[in-house]
Write a structure and sequence with these properties.
The structure holds two protein chains of two kinds. By secondary structure, chain A is an all-alpha fold. Chain A has six helices and no strands. Classes of the chains: A mainly alpha, B alpha/beta.
């Protein structure tokens, strides 16, 4: 049984979403289109993940690989053309699959769904703050590597009687 | 509850949720001034309010939820007049802004965001069978995500048609009321929404005048235009003290009195001294540099990200007649860094006319990497002209750090500190772009004190300043936080 870990899930998703958003706005364009496309790709990934509840761990790993590939490519390119957004957007959507999948696996059996959603949202808020402050002070390498740590926290073996 | 009804309710909840977050973000970014730190604060408060709503979804009785949803709808029908009058009133009482404005943000976020977050957990928990709950999650939460995207996208896309956006947003809220609050309350909501559509714009407009009179301390200020672009709120304000001024997310970008001086040092002076064959202006949404530069170059390109700023510039700052007949001028709407990365053109003069780096989006165009890209797009002997935002002094502040970034990428940098403009400008090139004598000779006719700093004195002035780079954008957060705390009297 995979533990629920809503705070860790939210932290991981916050780091991924804002890492993608800041990397794409930095490398490609601050245009509103970038924000709208990143938000759209993220929501599409979350939506698709709702039908993939059985793949929770695999989707975390897949999202991480997509994130690393996209950010590693962007590390090598300070500024690029708008057209490159199209092949980076799938990485955003793949990163969001884990969120929907996790919800689909945990929420049907969760007695207090509000507490789970609130904890996940709190983690997301913390992830957003960490992503922005980390990028501001430590730069692109932080955005690249921070989700590795949050994914490790999310997938770490569970200790007895500790669900989060 | 049947799945289609659950999906419809949560879809409308998503529209209301996304729309309410955008209303909050846009209004409070402008009321608290839109540095990156403020955007982060408002987004964070909205998320925290959503968390509270999720928690309460397990605890609130349906009756309590209905009452608080009614309150949330009522406050949104009073949007944006309610927050504007509240902020103006608090500032009038104190004769300035204080920490209570941040408390007001929290209050509005709790009232208009939290009740939307209650729906999902309340409806899911009502389904006790795991299979039915999974179906409810897939269709209900899926509908909420779609609705959230629609609500957010509508708010962004219809920013220049605020009344149309508010009418559609209110229609979605009335539909939600009809589905969840019963017919009588829905009729009351419809009446309230109709009143809001009819009388709201006048109240909101008067509230905005009051904000500029009491928060910005501009007696008699009148907002002649207020538009939301996908990037920021753009306001044109007339007042006796500043004349006609342009504000971006509440931050003063320029006023008509200083425009000529800024344009002189940023564009006119380097163009007269360099006589470029091909020039590029990044920013300058008011287009006020165009008429003069078009006459001084064979080919002029302007790149501006925000089409609404360009439209406002044409309407309020640069007469359309002054922009006609320049066949050698091309306007490109887009991001300056993407334009430079893609273009095969090379320039004799690149002018960077952008606000101070108080958001990441602005800061990217003040980094070493960006200046390196500019240098790669200059012809031999080409010059980059940059506004440094203030006099060079404290090495931790923006002017010194931007000068350090330029000096790290260009062999020769000359800084001009103008008393008249109350700020500095920099000219960078592969070799010394202009002599101090030529710069002084080309100074603005009303200049009282012009300092030209280069060579060793400049190196000494920025010796302890750290260049801004894509991996060191702390300036954005540090300065933003300092300014936020100063404005709200939260510094010891």
């Amino acid at each position: 049984m995979i533990p629920a870990r809503p705070h860790r899930l939210g932290l991981h998703l916050g780091l991924l979403q804002f890492g993608h958003l800041m990397a794409l706005q930095r490398g490609i364009s601050a245009a509103a289109l970038t924000y709208a496309l990143v938000l759209g790709a993220w929501l599409a990934g979350s939506l698709a993940g709702l039908w993939l509840g059985h793949l929770g761990r695999a989707l975390v790993a897949l999202g991480l690989v997509a994130h690393l590939a996209a950010h590693a490519w962007l590390l090598g390119h300070d500024f690029v053309e708008l057209a490159t957004l199209w092949f980076l957007l799938p990485a955003v959507a793949v990163g969001a699959l884990a969120g929907g999948s996790w919800f689909a696996r945990v929420l049907p059996n969760e007695p207090r769904t509000g507490s789970f959603l609130a904890a996940e949202n709190d983690g997301f808020l913390f992830g957003m703050l960490v992503a922005v402050v980390g990028f501001g002070f430590l730069g692109r390498w932080f955005s690249l590597l921070a989700p590795l740590a949050s994914a490790a926290l999310l997938l770490a073996p569970q200790r007895a009687a500790n669900n989060n | 509850m049947p799945l289609h009804r659950l999906a419809l309710i949560l879809g409308l909840v998503g529209v209301g949720f996304g729309g309410a977050q955008q209303l909050l973000l846009r209004e409070f970014a402008a009321l608290l001034y839109g540095e990156e730190v403020v955007l982060l604060l408002v987004a964070g408060v909205a998320l925290a309010a959503a968390s509270l709503g999720y928690r309460l979804g397990d605890r609130w009785s349906p009756r309590t939820h209905r009452r608080l949803l009614l309150l949330a709808l009522a406050v949104q029908f009073a949007w944006p007049a309610a927050p504007r009058w509240a902020v103006a009133g608090l500032c009038a009482l104190r004769s300035g802004s204080g920490p209570e404005l941040l408390a007001l943000l929290v209050l509005f976020a709790l009232v208009i965001v939290s009740p939307f977050a209650v729906f999902l957990p309340a409806l899911l928990t009502a389904e006790t069978d795991p299979a039915r709950r999974l179906a409810a999650l897939r269709w209900g939460y899926g509908a909420e995500l779609l609705g959230f995207f629609v609500g957010s996208a509508a708010a962004i896309a219809l920013g220049t048609h605020q009344q149309i956006h508010l009418t559609l947003h209110f229609a979605a809220l009335v539909a939600l009321a009809a589905l969840t609050l019963g017919r009588a309350r829905a009729v009351i909501c419809l009446a309230a929404a109709s009143l809001a559509v009819g009388y709201g714009p006048g109240l909101a407009s008067a509230g905005l005048d009051a904000v500029y009179q009491h928060k910005h301390r501009l007696p008699g200020a009148h907002v002649v235009a207020s538009l939301d672009s996908p990037y920021q709120r753009i306001e044109v304000v007339d007042s006796a003290r500043r004349g006609r001024a342009l504000y971006l997310d509440g931050l003063r970008d320029l006023d008509s009195g200083e425009l000529d001086v800024l344009n002189h040092y940023l564009g006119r002076l380097p163009a007269r001294l360099r006589r470029p064959d091909r020039a590029l202006v990044l920013g300058n949404g008011t287009l006020s540099l165009v008429p003069e530069l078009a006459a001084l170059t064979r080919e002029l390109h302007s790149v501006e990200l925000d089409p609404v700023v360009v439209a406002v510039g044409r309407t309020f700052f640069t007469a359309p007649a002054a922009l006609t007949g320049h066949d050698n001028w091309q306007l490109h709407l887009g991001d300056g860094k993407a334009f430079l990365a893609a273009t095969g053109l090379r320039f004799d003069l690149i002018i960077v006319d952008l606000p101070s780096p108080l958001t990441f989006g602005e800061a990217y165009l003040h980094t070493r990497e960006f200046y390196q890209l500019c240098r790669a797009r200059l012809r031999p002997g080409g010059v980059l002209a940059v506004q440094l935002s203030g006099p060079i002094g404290n090495p931790a502040r923006t002017p010194a750090r931007l000068a350090a970034s330029l000096s790290a990428e260009f062999p020769a940098v000359v800084v001009v500190a103008s008393k008249l403009a109350d700020r500095s400008f920099a000219y960078a090139s592969d070799a010394r772009p202009f002599t101090p004598e030529s710069i002084r000779a080309a100074a603005h006719p009303q200049e009282r004190d012009l300092q030209v700093i280069h060579g060793d004195p400049l190196a000494a002035a920025i010796s302890s300043a750290t260049p801004v780079t894509l991996d060191d954008l702390d300036l954005v957060l540090r300065r933003g936080l300092e300014r936020l705390l100063e404005r709200h009297h939260l510094l010891p």
